[in-house]
Amino acid sequence: MAAEAPPQQTGWLVRLKAGLGRSSSRLADGIGAILTKRRLDDDALEALEELLITADLGVQPAAELTQALAKERFDKQVSPDAVRAALAGTIAAILEPVARPLALDAAHRPHVVLVVGVNGTGKTTTIGKLAKAWRDQGKSVMLAACDTFRAAAIEQLEAWGERAGCPVITRAPGADAAGLAFDALREAQARAADALIVDTAGRLHNKAELMAELEKIRRALNKIDPGAPHDCVLVLDATVGQNAHAQVETFGRMVDVTGLVVTKLDGTARGGVLVALAQRFGLPVFAVGVGEGVDDLRPFEARAFARALMGLEG
Amino acid sequence: MFESLTNRLGEVFDRLKRRGALSEADVAAALREVRIALLEADVALPVVKDFIARVGERAVGAEVVRSVTPAQMVVKIVHDELTAMLGGDSAGIDLAAAPPATILMVGLQGSGKTTTTAKLGLRLARNDKKKVLMASLDVRRPAAQEQLRVLGEQAGVATLPVSAIEQPLAIAKRALETGRLEGYDVVLLDTAGRLHIDDEMMAEAAAVRDATDPVEVLLVADALTGQDAVTLAKAFDERLRLTGIVLTRVDGDARGGAALSMRAVTGRPIKLIGVGEKLDALEPFHPGRIASRILGMGDVVSLVEKAAETIDRDDAEKLARKIRKGGFDFDDLAGQIRQMRRMGGVEGLLGMLPGVAKVRKQLAEANVDERMLVRQEAIIGSMTRVERRNARLLNGSRKRRIAAGAGATVQDVNRLIKQYKAVNNMMKRAGKLGKKGLMRHGLPGMPPVGSF
What average pLDDT score do residues A37-54 get? Predict the structure, then answer.
């Protein structure tokens, strides 16, 4: 996979692998320890299942993956590498259909992207990186600082706007977010921008009031352009556990999430819940975040993710 | 998607239907379910395994008390053990140091350090009457220092003036110096979010720690964290010798298994929990409640406390008198709706009740939410005073007028009237039973407290 990647992508692959490598080395060592000692019997399978659980895959998906493996190779002498490769293959097959980048549709001027998520997942940072990536492709991008709640969220987005070289539409802290979104879309239309990215305040999905406010932003955008927002990105933190299911479900119901971005994959969290999310919701994973730098937003590659998760070289 | 552990164990034991002491086989069957429940609550696997082993030892041979089912017995043992493991009573913030007592806040990116710092600052200033200074050492995230400054302003807590070019260690030293010179009791140091595997950043935090000799090093961690909780807590503890943990976003609907994981691997107490976006939403940690939540049993204690907090005593007594006379009117219903909203709405209430996952789902489908309560209040507000006291007056034309006034439909008004009648009937029955009767029969929809 490294060979197929264009040269400028080597950096991210190395980084992702370094990050995932760190996190998966324990997993890989574990599998090694299980399998050099014995055949793929019940104990070995149970240990495998547990290792998948520690990667946040969830109890049921871990059981299912292990069962699938058992069906094929139970009681056979298998090398640790073969088991890893087989599991990585299965995981990659699950993830393959959801590895789709966020593409701007030139028919929309602007293509409106609403960015949502719980607090602290990295929405503003992701927007900064996304804006930069599109600017590098020569697109005109505008940002709307609709997080009018958190202290200094506006300043944070403005700093990113400066880095990426795109205008940021703001209002005073505490202003109505939906009204701001409305004005921003007007402005972006007037300038015929290629993209408008709308930042929103982080909110826990179980707070009905805050979720209603998000729906209001959506309605405001909808008033100007019935197709807007054309995309709604839910930003997930890789350290999240099984609560990711509730997040995707609720945000999905309220604002029609069209895809996910998974951040902080440069840590030791493995984001294994993505596998279960792919099975259950089938939402595209637009990109992954692998660091704080402006270039640390990368396309999601199913095979690379799966193999790195299992501690295998590209 | 989470099934309550009690229900689950109920099923296991339904098949067994046995009484007397818990046999090894009973316990093993039950513990398989406990294991799944804990893993689904994001408790880290190694911690789950230890826990299961401990509970197993305690449970085998335990007498099942006559009045409880074997399932309840196992749940009680599990709950007790979980509470014990989460750490006896809640531990406070340690300020026993020569002033200014320094508190260092550390954690991953986005765990909520800055907000928590401001909340803690407010808490120490307001509850402990301390003079608090806050300083942000975050020179990496854009506008992070500005964020703390604004929060300080909102909380009325002093922040160290920001200097553009200073490095974290220098800011920390300046904060302590200012703290000493200006007579502050506590200096809170907010740091940049960092990955526990980022050697450079961890070394920076360690340097700040060594230079400032803090009385508390608090790990701020997200209650939504999954299996990685053990790895990160261990790494932070090894590098920075934590003194405690602050768990944030406990107001979310995550089961919060991370609390148990982090407590188990570091041995550090969970000192505080963040329970909302407002600056006063920082509370002491109660092991028993988190234990219930991890087990998916809801939080009956919190519910009772919240009810006690929110429901005005006088109002309650007035209502009780009215009910006895059978004069429960629409004004009283409006009062109840308001109380419900104060307690966090339907969702908030249900979240605290055990075994309501299914009801909750039905409610979500029926669209019973905050907005419905608001609408109902509006409908009552559109009634005349006479109508509110006498539901029988409400004929078709009055209903149409009320609906128009409240921006609702006649069907909405009808639904409210139906609901009013149901509540009224229930209240009348309850009134006849008297206080004792209510206790004996339990409130509808609420299991008797102490059923597990």
Answer: 78
Q: A281-304: buried (b, 16+ CB within 10 Å) or exposed (e) per residue?
A: eebbbbbbbbbbebebbbbbbbbb
* Domain pair A6-98 / A111-301, same fold: no
Specify the pTM. 0.78
Residues 6 or more apart whose CB falls under 8 angstroms from that of B105 comprise B113, B116, B117, B120, B188, B189, B190, B191, B218, B220, B246
- The Cα–Cα gap between B323 and B325 comes to 5
Residue type at B278 in one-letter notation: K
Contact B61/B21 with Cβ under 8 angstroms? yes
Q: Which of chain B's residues have a Cβ under 8 Å away from the Cβ of A208?
A: 345, 347, 369-371
CATH no. for B303-451: 1.10.260.30
Choose between B347 and B447: higher pLDDT: B347
Confidence label for B336 from pLDDT (cuts 50, 70 and 90):
confident
DSSP β-bridge partners for residue B247? B221, B273
Are the C-beta atoms of B418 and B379 separated by less than 8 Å?
no
pLDDT in tens, B217-263: 999 999 999 999 999 999 999 999 999 999 999 988 888 899 999 99
The yes or no reply on domain B3-85 and CATH 3.40.50.170 is: no
Here the ipTM equals 0.85
| Residue bearing tokens 């609550």 | B41
d(CA A287, CA A298): 5
Q: Which of B45, B141, B251 lies closest to A204 in CB terms?
A: B251
Q: Give the pLDDT band of residue B11 (cuts 50, 70, 90).
A: low
Nearest to A208 among B44, B224, B345 (CB): B345
Q: Which residue has the higher pLDDT, A199 or B64?
A: A199
Q: What is the CATH number of domain A6-98?
A: 1.20.120.140
Chain Cα centroid distance, residue B236: 25
- Cα A108 to chain centroid, rounded: 24
Rg (CA), chain A: 21
For domain A111-301, give the fold. Rossmann fold (3.40.50)
Tell me the pLDDT of chain B averaged across its residues: 81
Interface mutation vs chain B, best among A204, A236, A263, A266, most B CBs within 10 Å: A204
Hey, what are B99's tokens? 């002033």
> Which residue from A284, A247, A119 is spatially nearest to B276, judged by alpha carbons?
A119
CB A182, CB A230: distance < 8 Å: no
Instruction: Assess contact for A231 and A124: CB atoms under 8 A.
Output: no
Portions of chain B given CATH number 1.20.120.140: 3-85
The ranges of chain B annotated as CATH 3.40.50.300 are 101-297
What residues does each domain of chain A span?
Answer: 6-98, 111-301
Residue type, B397: S
Nearest C-alpha neighbor of A267 from the set A297, A243, A289: A289
Cβ atoms of B347 and A208 within 8 Å: the answer is yes
* B199 → chain A, closest CA residue: A267
Count the Cβ atoms, other than its own, within 10 Å of residue B405.
14
3-state class of A242 per DSSP?
Answer: coil
Strands B270-274 and B244-248: parallel
Q: What pLDDT is attached to residue B36?
A: 87
CATH architecture, domain defined by B101-297: 3-Layer(aba) Sandwich (3.40)
Which residue type does B378 have?
A
Nearest to A240 among B1, B150, B226 (CB): B226
Q: Which residue has the tokens 């055949």?
A: A39
Residue B435 confidence class, pLDDT cut points 50, 70, 90: very low
Please compute the mean of the pLDDT values over residues A252-281 and round it to a whole number.
93
The amino acid present at B410, given as its one-letter code, is V
CATH 1.10.260.30 residue spans of chain B: 303-451
B347 vs A113, residue with greater confidence = A113
